């Protein structure tokens, strides 16, 4: 069964939301705290180690209730069920969307359960053998480095998670080759010892041009330094294409599949996450999946008013469509999460960057937002000035951890003090007049507080799954397909055409640049 196809702007709640916005858009967030006795109770939600406070937003309980009604009018509950039960909700590619099955212990399909079980078994075996020194390089030396060769979803998620969970490293150093820029790859290879390095080539089709060209370069380097026969000891493939990896020199036992029902940008939970499991160990990888699974259950079963992904999605829709906010910032106060915004940028913008609805009509409302961000406190010394005093209204997620990993309580207290100070300053501002008018800060800037006990594999799994489900909710309500990426495919096809036929089909401007560039 496909997703429902209801235009959100045609719903009664949308018209009512317009009216409420016109009545309330100039109110200060403080007014809501004064007028709503139970605001903190109504605008917080929690799950295990995660606590979400969305009370510091320019949204009244009345508007929030109407957004909940919008969920019902656009059949969100039914769409969530279809999301999890394997319905063909990616209609334009005729596929199910079941990356959640990669972390689920129960599936409606025995075939899917078996595939997930077999893949996890392979991940466990490879991870344990490398970490325990059972699987070694051609010369008998222990593997010390693992290089992931992939791009997009085959790179951003695994890199983000391995960095985020580097505190839990088992001693293997991860590296990533994604961009087809030859200078970076050449420079990295200079620093690697082929005797102690394992390479993982990640490509669903084993035809992605960036990945294949980089893999060929690495293969040539390896053969020049070692020999062709030893490729079998140092290369693993993650792909649905089993024949081309064999021709590359990779043994069957070292080829892991990517199910058709898993999209690239949501694939880190399975075979694409092999490098994660190698680096943090399979037990921690299991905990990572467990945290995501708990968030999935919360998303499926919780009432919308206290459903964390639903709440975050509704806040996003509110600002994007009624306040005309074009961007959202993600600000984790933990340096290990330095690549979280990059990962969510792809996950969100590749999913909901659409202008055609599920009925095939051009939309006349806003869909996906621009996702960006950095880590606190670095961000405070970079772009916070614009957030506090600029002309842009930027809804922001602040993410903080109650406990540090190192145990340095004093420095962690300074970090969290900055976290609290910034959300407070965005809210209250600093009114100045007269000669000090240049120092005036209006405040009334929105933020969500996401508080997590500690950065563990399990809690990170929950956090990522939370954002994945938020993305789905936005696409569901806004009546767009979140799981295709035809804009990306267009650029790929034109690049292939240029490589094959030169500038013959380029526009005049690009043709002129072609002459100067190539």
Descriptive notes:
There is one protein chain. This protein is of the alpha/beta class. The chain has a six-stranded mixed sheet, sandwiched between helices. α1 (12-24) packs antiparallel against α4 (61-73), α13 runs parallel beside α18 and α14 (308-322) packs across α18. β6 (235-238), α11 and β7 (255-256) form a beta-alpha-beta unit. The chain is 47% helix and 10% strand. The protein has 20 helices and eleven strands. The chain has three domains: 8-97 and 290-485, Glucose-6-phosphate isomerase like protein, domain 1 (Rossmann fold, 3-Layer(aba) Sandwich); 110-284, Glucose-6-phosphate isomerase like protein, domain 1 (Rossmann fold, 3-Layer(aba) Sandwich); 487-517, no CATH class. It is globular, with a radius of gyration of 24 Å. The mean pLDDT is 96. The longest helix is centred in the N-terminal third of the chain and has 22 residues, at 110-131.
Which fold name fills CATH's third level, the topology of the largest domain? Rossmann fold
Radius of gyration: 24 Å
Q: For this entry, what is the oligomeric state of its chains?
A: single chain
The helix fraction, in percent, is 40-55%
The number of helical elements comes to 20
How does the helix and strand content classify structurally? alpha/beta
Q: How are strands sequenced across the largest beta sheet?
A: 1-2-11-10-8-9
Give the beta-strand count.
11
What is the beta-strand fraction?
Answer: 5-15%
Report low-confidence residues grouped into runs of 5 or more: none
Highest-level CATH class of the largest domain: Alpha Beta
Task: Write down the domain tally.
Answer: 3
- What kind of sheet is the major sheet? 6 strands, mixed
CATH homology group of the largest domain: Glucose-6-phosphate isomerase like protein, domain 1
Mean pLDDT level: 96
How far apart are the first and last residues' alpha carbons, in Å?
A: 49 Å
- Characterize the overall form: globular
Using the 3D structure, state the CATH architecture of the largest domain. 3-Layer(aba) Sandwich
